[in-house]
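User: Can you recover a sequence for this backbone? Please restate the input before giving your answer.

Assistant: Of course. Working from this structure:
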């Protein structure tokens, strides 16, 4: 109804304005001025209303589709609790997890654990990003470096980050160094492999043209290599950040005093599945937020996609 009124106003108001303009010419009057201003404002509002309604309808449909599956899963979870298919000491009801989250937010526990994990992830990810980009560009541009590093990369890449925990403790102790090392290892290879593939998929004609014009290596990297490989690199960065966030749980198994992984282990030790599920949900929510942030950065950085 509101949309129809807005569309009708867009047709009727211009006609009324023309009539008022004719009357104003024949007999100037302040009333006509005020009426014209009111009709103009109404016309602008009708444009806004129809646009907002179209956007609102699309937004509502997308929101419903986005939330229907999570809400259905929570409903099934609650029904299973009511029927007695699950036991509270193995799988608590949804409201218990919610109350635990509220409790942890009020006393600052959730903020403390989340902050500690995010800081570790960002530190390990930053190290992995610098090393992977540097090595990836070198391998992509130099066949000699590629042959030199291919064997070691192929051997080390399949090793899961959690397998590095014993060596990380021996090398860096049980402090922050070992945790950041595990996170960096997890984020390193997705960025490295995607950087190499991105450089190899650049059209060779661009590199040949740069040689003809005797362009410096630094300029080639800045103007051809990085922009050309940017879609692959950003895909690797997103995968690397996701892996870093996954690895933070394994990293925090190493004598951590704070962090989401520590909260998971603490919940297991205290036989509190509500803490464990809350920690798992926080890992998923924060990981999604970081991925959404990177997706927006990618869209702005790679405008030609």
């Amino acid at each position: 109804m509101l949309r129809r009124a807005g569309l009708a106003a867009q047709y009727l108001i211009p006609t009324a304005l023309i009539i008022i303009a004719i009357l104003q010419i024949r007999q100037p009057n302040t009333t006509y001025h005020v009426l014209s201003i009111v009709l103009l404002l109404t016309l602008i509002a009708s444009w806004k209303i129809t646009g907002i309604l179209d956007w609102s309808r699309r937004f509502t449909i997308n929101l419903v589709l986005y939330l229907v599956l999570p809400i259905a899963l929570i409903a099934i979870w609650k029904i299973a609790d009511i029927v007695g298919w699950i036991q509270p000491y193995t799988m608590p009801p949804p409201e218990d997890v919610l109350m635990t989250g509220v409790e942890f937010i009020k006393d600052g526990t959730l903020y403390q654990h989340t902050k500690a994990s995010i800081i570790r992830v960002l530190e390990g990810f930053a190290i992995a990003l610098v090393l992977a980009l540097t090595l990836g560009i070198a391998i992509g541009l130099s066949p000699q470096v590629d042959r030199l590093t291919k064997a070691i990369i192929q051997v080390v890449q399949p090793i899961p980050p959690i397998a590095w925990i014993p060596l990380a403790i021996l090398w860096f102790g049980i402090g922050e160094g070992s945790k950041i090392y595990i996170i960096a290892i997890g984020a390193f290879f997705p960025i490295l492999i995607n950087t190499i593939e991105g450089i190899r998929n650049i059209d060779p004609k661009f590199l040949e043209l740069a040689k003809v014009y005797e362009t410096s290596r630094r300029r080639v990297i800045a103007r051809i290599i990085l922009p050309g490989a940017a879609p692959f690199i950003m895909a690797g960065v997103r995968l690397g950040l996701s892996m870093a966030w996954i690895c933070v749980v394994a990293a925090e198994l190493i004598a951590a005093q704070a962090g989401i992984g520590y909260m998971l282990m603490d919940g297991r030790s205290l036989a509190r599945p509500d803490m464990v599920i809350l920690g798992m949900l926080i890992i998923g929510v924060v990981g999604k937020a970081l991925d959404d942030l990177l997706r927006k950065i990618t869209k702005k950085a790679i405008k030609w996609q």
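That completes the design. The two ends are 39 Å apart (CA to CA).
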